[in-house]
Amino acid sequence: DTGVSQDPRHKITKRGQNVTFRCDPISEHNRLYWYRQTLGQGPEFLTYFQNEAQLEKSRLLSDRFSAERPKGSFSTLEIQRTEQGDSAMYLCASKGQINSPLHFGNGTRLTVT
Amino acid sequence: GDSVTQMEGPVTLSEEAFLTINCTYTATGYPSLFWYVQYPGEGLQLLLKATKADDKGSNKGFEATYRKETTSFHLEKGSVQVSDSAVYFCALRADNQGGKLIFGQGTELSVKP
Q1: Tens digit of pLDDT for each residue in A20-56?
Q2: Chain A partners of B88 at a C-beta cutoff of 8 Å?
C-alpha cells in the first residue's frame, strides 16, 4: 500500500493560466474523490469517480474545472483561466469497499498570483 | 443539507491535560461519523470512526461516541502529548451519497510541554 500520490506538491501560476494536477490512488480502489481546502477551513467536496465514471460534481466545480479518470486508475484535475480565488490545497482521496474509509493524499497547493 | 460543526480553535493545552473537541452534525438518515487528523505538513489521516448510534471509536488514546440523541461525536483524550498537536476534523458520511465525506471546519490543537 503506497498510499495516494499527488503531483505536483506545489504549483504557482499566474492568473489566467491553465493548470493540471494528477492523482494516483491506492491500487484497486475504485472510487476517487477530489476536495478543495482553503486556509482555516475543512475540505470541501468537488467531485468523485467510480472507476472511470464521474458520478457527482459539486456546484463548487465551475465550468473552468474539469476532472477525468480515463482508465479508472489515475485522475487529473484541470483548472482553466485560473483566478486568485482558486488558490487552495487540492486534495485527492481514494476508497475501496463500500464501508471502508477515505485515504487522502498530501495534496497539491495552488497559488495563483 | 448535511453539515458538521466543530468548536472553534485554536485549543491550547498543557501536556497531560484532558482534551475535548466538540462536534455536532446535521444529517438525514443514519450517517457514519469520523475524526481525521492533519499533522503539520502531512495529509489527512483517519483517526477513528463510528458507524451507528452508541458506537465508540477509539485509537491512539482518543475516543468518540456516536450520540444520536444529541447529534454529537465529541473527541476526547485523557492525557494529551506534544505530539498530538495537529488540526482535527470531524466528518460525516451520509447514506446513499457515494461515500463522500462532509467535513467540519477543523480545530487546531496546540499542546505545550
Answers
A1: 999 999 998 999 999 999 988 999 999 999 999 999 9
A2: none
